[in-house]
Amino acid sequence: MKKFTIAAVSLFSLLCLSMSFAQTDERQPLLSVKDIMNGLIVPTTTTIWGAYQLETDAQWQEVRNAALSVIAAGNLLQFGGAGEGEVVAAAEEDWKTYNQQMIEAARLVIVAADNKDEEILSAVGNDALYPPCESCHQQYQKR
Fold first, then answer.
1. What does the pLDDT look like over 95-118, one tens digit per residue?
2. Residue 140 has what pLDDT?
3. What is the mean pLDDT of residues 116-127?
4. Confidence of residue 3 (pLDDT cuts 50, 70, 90)
5. CATH number of the domain within which 67 lies
């Protein structure tokens, strides 16, 4: 239930954030990449990577909600963040590639959750979601 609450709060926060983007003429990031990572990506990917022995519809929905949050956070990350140099970094091809790979992996998590297939969920988490996250951290986290 705690993870579901985190996912629900994350989705609500993203909705509010996207509404605030819609209310401004300039699409300036309101959060730093670190804020997006710590507040949205880390909790939701932890849910995805920690999912095993899922037995109830609610558990599968929690994983699905986590993937939706990753997609929404990826949408924010395409603009970079409010931190110094983060908008410039987001314009780089590697950033765009890692971000798109993360979003595509989250879409595959949704498919696995919809099919209630733990084997595919594990493979997607390890083989599709983890690599772009790790590659992006290696390239950009030190900046």
1. 999 999 999 999 999 999 999 999
2. 94
3. 98
4. low
5. 1.20.120
Paired tokens of 129: 């979601």
Q: According to the 3-state scheme, what is the secondary structure of the chain?
A: CHHHHHHHHHHHHHHHHHHHHHCCCCCCCCCCHHHHHHHHHHHHHHHHHCCCCCCCHHHHHHHHHHHHHHHHHHHHHCCCCCCCCHHHHHCCHHHHHHHHHHHHHHHHHHHHHHCCCHHHHHHHHHHHHHHHHHHHHHHHCCC
Domain count for the chain, please give it. 1
User: Sign of the C-alpha dihedral, residues 90, 94, 100, 103?
Assistant: negative
